[in-house]
Amino acid sequence: MKIADSAELWSQAVERLRAEIGEENAELWLKPAQAVSLEGGVLTLRVPNKFFSDGIKERYQKRLIAVFRELSGADVGLDFRVERDISRVLPPSDPVPEASSQSDFALSELNPRYTFETFVIGESNRLARATAESIAKSPGTQYNPYVIYGGVGLGKTHLMHAIGNAMRRQHPKARVLYTTSEQFVNEFIAAVQNNALDAFRARYRSLDCLLIDDIQFLIAKDRSEQEFFHTFNALFDSRKQIVVSSDRSPKEMSPLEQRLISRLEWGFVADIKPPDLETRIAILRKKAALEGFAVPDDVVLFVASSVKTNVRLLEGSLIRLKAFQSMTGAPLTVDDARDILKDTLASDEGNPVRIETIQRVVALKYSVEVKDIKGHQRTASIALPRQVAMYLSCVMTDQSSTDIGRAFGGKDHSTVLHARKKIERKVEEDPFFLELINRLQADIKAAER
After folding, report:
1. CA 36 to chain centre
2. Which residues pair with 179 in a beta bridge?
3. What percent of the chain has pLDDT over 70?
4. How crowded is residue 404: how many other Cβ atoms within 10 Å of its Cβ?
5. Residue 47 — φ and ψ, nearest 5°?
6. pTM recorded for the entire structure
7. Which residues neighbour 161 within 8 Å (Cβ) at sequence distance 6 or greater?
8. Residue 260 has pLDDT above 80, yes or no
9. Per-residue model confidence as pLDDT tens digits over 188-219
10. 5-8 contacts: CB < 8 A, separation 24 or more?
11. Which candidate, 6, 169, 129, 28, places its Cα nearest to that of 79?
């Protein structure tokens, strides 16, 4: 039976070519294309941008036409409809089936807890948050690119994930990617080494929204910066949303190519400052509610008054208090909080802790070598101390997870986050392990004196 339906013809052609061109090329180049119509002997495909139409024409058009003839018994030409606006891919008025709530192009896992609803608004971040929400509702239009900058642990990553989560809810088929500049560089290097630049470029230049963290680490990396520059242009020209974060404003960066900085300044730049006392109290109360943890008001005020510069450290303090209360079953007091958090409070008061010290103290405690902690062995005797050291680096220093990963032998951002989550769970569940972590923190602070 000859095929005359456009969707069926395209689906079977893709499956036929999959065996010839390989799974990866089929997923990258052919799967994103959608059959629109089969009229007058021409199959029209809808593609995300011109990069896709050019790529399919150059690589597969001749073979596709031959396959169409085999499947349909007639000569079938190929035409393309390039989408310029994400709203045309999924009109807001269209009902979204529950089964389609996830993107069909899930390049990255977004943290489901990082949403606009869980982001506490204060004077220090009101503009940044409002802009982010506007972008999620209408990506690629008014605020493009969007640059968020500020110190460590103030909520930049939270806002980026919130944009991605909101876009995926409103536009389930949107191609949304959250990544770090370090991951971008590593993928680019691997693509060069493996002669896979086409696949790398297809992955990034077909996105509807690119969220890239810690852009400052990409600046001045020569070829990687140039590649990002061209990726930026491809997305911008296709009216796709670009969001980047940094620890400094574009004007304070020192790139090899000033043209990239000028591109970042085309859009909207917003900073996030350390939260004021009222915002810190609100953050603690919201975190406590999410954790199902009742905290006395005087303890909340004490913690909010003591931890002033880092929201991540603020939330981490609450997790430690929750672990203590679950272990003892006794009501929390300010004196308890002062004792439990004495090392955390010291680190927030400007007494710097070095990652090298953390690695050395942890290695000594577990009777392993520092080089093993920084290495790539995955045996339990090495993996646990490595994860403990990464966790302590997160809670005792102001370094980003990208910086911490680099200090542990070039581990990536996601490895550090995994280690932190794993140790946080262990601290909450095991009172003896909590005591070990407290002793390690005391030893680390003593070693830095």
Report:
1. 33
2. 212
3. 87
4. 25
5. -125, 155
6. 0.56
7. 110, 111, 114, 115, 178, 211
8. no
9. 888 888 888 888 888 898 899 999 988 877 76
10. 5/38, 6/35, 6/36, 6/37, 6/38, 6/43, 6/44, 7/35
11. 6
Query: For position 144, what pLDDT does the model report?
Result: 86
Strands 42-47 and 34-39 turn out to be antiparallel
CB 13 within 8 A of CB 84: no
